[in-house]
Design brief:
8-stranded mixed sheet; alpha/beta; 8 strands; 283 residues
Length: 283
């Protein structure tokens, strides 16, 4: 399969890689650094991609690790097969397919929102592939008013700005360039149709295939839960719920921080994750 003519994004500045991960499926991802693999799983907002979630984190953490961030099936620049299915299990399988393609047997997972939900679902179905998990504002929680708004955003620059402003407590972080980059991605050919399908699948699974919280009591790998105290998208209670059942979970709360801790607190977040990975480098 031919790869698209798409190299380095002018805003996010991350070099691109492509892999055929299944017949008719071309996965777009970023691959930086060397060492123990750390796989990054993004959230589910309009115009989202791996780069749009992790552009402030990948290069920093790649100083000590191999950092891989993929556009999940239905998002970003990944090309799904014509008969692609979406949903939590499909996103887990897609992640595993990329890991298999790259020859990565075991990895840390770092997930934001939906990506955290994917990480913990993978912990239930493929625990042998996971060294540990870092999850921020873990998705799959009961639907909030903010989540409902994000499911049907106004696909204009003003609409994208409104959504992004709900992710942070400091509006200056939502720059004109960031809004333009997310808007451009949201209006790419086929993007709106795919977004509608993945949101429908996400919200169906929220009700009919929720994360089995009690089953996570058996997940014995190290976990770092990160949450902004001012998160209006997914409340702090989600991380508290997970911390109660995960036997090796640490919990870190950021004050003056919303749903986007990896952006709003990027230097502190990078240092926290790097320290956690060093501490648990032996498993």
């Amino acid at each position: 399969m031919d790869t698209p003519d798409y190299t380095t994004d002018p805003y996010f500045g991350l070099a691109d890689s492509w892999a055929e991960t299944a017949p008719g499926e071309l996965t777009h991802y970023h691959d930086l650094g060397e060492g123990t693999p750390v796989t990054f799983l993004h959230g589910s907002g309009a115009g989202v991609s791996a780069a749009a979630n992790w552009w402030l984190n990948l290069s920093d953490l790649a100083r000590e690790h191999r950092t891989v961030a993929l556009d999940l099936l239905g998002f970003g620049q990944t090309r799904p097969a014509p008969d692609a299915a979406y949903g939590i299990d499909a996103w887990v399988r897609h992640t595993v397919r990329l890991l298999d393609t790259l020859g990565i047997e075991r990895t840390w997972l770092v997930g934001n929102s939906l990506g955290g939900w994917v990480a913990f679902q993978m912990a239930l179905t493929h625990p042998e592939r996971i060294l540990g998990i870092v999850s921020m504002g873990t998705g799959g929680a009961p639907r909030t008013a903010a989540l409902a708004r994000h499911a049907r955003p106004e696909v204009t620059e003003a609409g994208i700005r409104k959504v992004l402003n709900e992710f942070v407590t400091e509006p200056s972080l939502v720059t004109d360039d960031l809004v333009a980059a997310r808007y451009t991605a949201a209006r790419a050919p086929g993007a709106e149709e795919r977004f509608a399908r993945v949101i429908e699948a996400r919200d169906h699974d929220r009700v009919h295939h929720p994360l089995d919280i009690e089953a996570l009591r058996g997940f014995d790998r190290p976990v770092l839960l990160v949450h902004g105290r001012d998160d209006t998208v997914i409340p702090v209670s989600r991380s508290l719920q997970l911390a109660e059942v995960l036997p090796r979970a640490d919990l870190h709360l950021y004050s003056r921080c919303g749903h986007w801790s990896q952006v709003e607190k990027a230097p502190q977040f990078n240092a926290l994750v790097a320290q956690f990975l060093r501490l648990h480098s032996g498993g």
